[in-house]
Design goal:
Length: about 625
């Protein structure tokens, strides 16, 4: 009996040692398991069962320990009953068997963990581990935690910062007197002259670019503008562009375009794709809106551009090539960087201080390679065209004299709702007057071309919410085509005029100067800096919008952070569901809600939204969204 008791004590000690060791190992691997949120469901059930079993074993151990330390009840001269010893031995044997099974389960869990965390590239598995002193340690990962698309952009601090730029805006702002001398017909400029024979060796090439600038909220709300005007512009566009393959049109605001797309049939969608594919319709910039460039955070600028580009790629299968920004109140150097990294090769800007425009026009520097101030070479360069005159409307785009240019805005023909403020209305083009009118217009084209370094001239033809009536499409396209036909049929004029898109203009300029699209043409300047603050005339500086409506500006930043947090949580959740094989059961409506949130945030980046320059009711509409 003494040997049996000694055997019982030895077994108890061994059981205690093995049980403690088992608990230690279970705690270690259970910690590893907790690091893997993607464990499959059946493995989770197995591990939970193992945990329950461990609890049962521990309870049994406590019971045995109690039996060992309680005063023994002795019968028959101090001896245990044989039945009690037999029961105890059976329980010990069961405990040993269960511990062996437990070791097998833990080993299986370990193998599963290693399999799930194995890396395809053979890199070591770096999991947290438990140290003997009771602390958890996360081993450092020697691998990079980010992927760099443009590594040179992150090296500006360690390379030579010397720049080979021709125009540094900080210097130019210091040097200019910012006087406001009367320039004559071009009030903010100067008189332009030219030699009529200078185009004899190389004719002037003119691209007239029809466009319609649609603000996603300004005087009216986004929806009001869409139903009153924008949907009619786009419906008319499909019809009128198909009437003549020589016609062209450009569009920028994808927020409006996507809303219209959702309400048209498959035949009209197919027609739009054909117009895009044959070059009659160009989607410029491709952002959800034409964003403000002063108040917007770069996160929101990128986000609205991604939203627009993804929509274009998915629905039309096109990637924008050229940027078009005619209405933001000043231009940041961040935007050309983002456009460059979005694979656009060229861009256009308009609202720049009139003194800067005059200075650049005098030095023929209105077209330049826009470079980041921290870039020591040409890695961030993008070709930029600056419009030279007061506005992007027709009176200020054909040439320096708005009184003459307004006469070629055929929306203002007598009998219409708008007219020319210079009291000289347009005249419809006929065989009797086409020669006279063509020469007057050509004179403006030639004068405008003298402000640039190539013999290719860009002439935008449009304004806010233009082409919403069928009559305007006919008036503009038919009358201009008569002028083009006359110019092109008279070689002595040395001009080729046509409708074009923005990329048509840039492609021709690159071809004429002998460079690949997006590369620096010979003798064109390189510029660094930005174009703030903006003044359109006299001392009318557009700076109040930097701080106006501060509540909405603050709400914009809060919304940005909440959306980003929701996107991260959604990504983690969908990845967890995918690993558990439950992806098909995950509600897709959550992603639709995220998309709506991104689009509403993008809408608020519009240059009349975050700036606070819209009407009160429109601002409230933005806030409700």
């Amino acid at each position: 009996m003494t040997k049996a008791w000694q055997r019982l004590e030895i077994n108890n000690v061994e059981t205690l040692r093995r049980s403690n060791h088992s608990r230690s190992r279970r705690g270690h691997y259970w910690g590893l398991f907790l690091q893997l949120p993607g464990m499959k469901l059946k493995k989770q059930v197995t591990v939970c069962g193992a945990a329950i079993f461990c609890v049962a074993v521990f309870s049994l151990y406590l019971m045995l320990d109690k039996v060992q330390h309680d005063p023994p009840r002795r019968q028959n001269g101090g001896n245990f009953p044989r039945s009690q010893i037999s029961v105890l031995q059976n329980r010990i044997e069961q405990l040993e068997q269960l511990l062996e099974e437990n070791h097998e389960i833990i080993s299986h869990i370990k193998d599963s963990v290693l399999e799930l965390t194995a890396n395809a590239d053979g890199q070591p598995i770096l999991l947290p581990y438990h140290t003997p002193n009771g602390t958890w340690v996360i081993p450092p990962d020697p691998r990079p935690s980010f992927y760099s698309i443009s590594p040179k952009d992150c090296q500006f601090a360690v390379v030579n910062k010397g720049q080979n730029t021709d125009l540094q805006m900080l210097d130019i702002y210091t040097q200019l007197p910012f006087d406001n001398l009367d320039g004559g017909v071009w009030k903010q400029g100067f008189d332009i002259t030219y030699d009529p024979t200078e185009w004899e060796t190389e004719p002037l090439q003119v691209f007239v670019v029809p466009h319609s600038h649609n603000d996603p909220g300004w005087i009216k709300t986004f929806d009001k503008y869409y139903y009153d005007q924008t949907q009619h512009i786009l419906n008319n566009m499909v019809v009128k562009l198909q009437e003549d393959p020589r016609r062209r049109f450009i569009w920028s605001e994808i927020s409006f375009f996507s809303k219209w797309w959702d309400n048209i049939n498959s035949q009209k969608r197919a027609a739009v794709r054909r117009l895009v594919n044959n070059g009659q319709l160009e989607m410029t910039t491709g952002g959800w809106v034409m964003p403000d460039e002063a108040n917007t955070h770069y996160f929101a600028m990128i986000d609205q551009m991604i939203e627009g580009h993804q929509w274009l790629k998915k629905n039309i299968g096109v990637i924008p090539r050229s940027g078009w920004a005619v209405d933001p109140f000043g231009h940041s150097s961040t935007m050309p960087y983002l456009l460059k990294r979005s694979n656009l090769t060229s861009m256009l800007i308009q609202r720049v201080h009139y003194s800067i425009k005059k200075h650049f026009a005098a030095t023929r520097s209105l077209e330049f390679m826009w470079r980041q101030t921290w870039d020591p070479d040409s890695g961030t360069d993008i070709f930029c065209h600056m419009m030279p005159f007061y506005s992007y409307d027709v009176p200020h785009t054909c040439g320096p004299d708005p009184k003459i240019c307004c006469q070629f805005d055929f929306r203002r023909l007598p009998g219409g709702r708008i007219n020319c403020p210079w009291k000289t209305p347009p005249r419809a083009i006929t065989e009797a007057n086409v020669a006279e009118r063509a020469n007057i217009l050509l004179d403006q084209y030639r004068k405008k071309s003298k402000l640039y370094r190539s013999k290719v001239v860009l002439v935008p033809l449009g304004d806010d919410f233009r082409y919403d009536k069928m009559q305007e499409w006919d008036a503009q396209f038919l009358n201009y085509q008569k002028l083009f036909d006359y110019m092109n049929s008279h070689p002595e004029l040395h001009v080729k005029a046509q409708f074009g898109t923005l990329s048509d203009y840039f492609d021709t300029l690159y071809k004429k100067t002998g460079v690949t699209p997006g590369m620096k043409p010979p003798d064109f300047p390189v510029l660094t800096g930005d174009f703030f603050s903006y003044a359109d005339r006299e001392d009318h500086y557009w700076t109040g919008y930097y701080t106006s409506r501060p509540f909405y500006k603050s709400m914009d930043r809060v919304l940005e952070s909440h959306i980003r947090g929701a996107e991260i949580l959604y990504s983690l959740a969908i990845n967890h569901a995918r690993r558990a094989g439950l992806e098909s059961k995950y509600p897709l409506s959550d992603y639709a809600l995220l998309t709506d949130a991104r689009r509403n945030l993008g809408l608020f980046q519009h240059h009349d939204a975050i700036t606070g320059t819209a009407k009160e009711a429109v601002v409230i509409d933005y806030g409700v969204r």
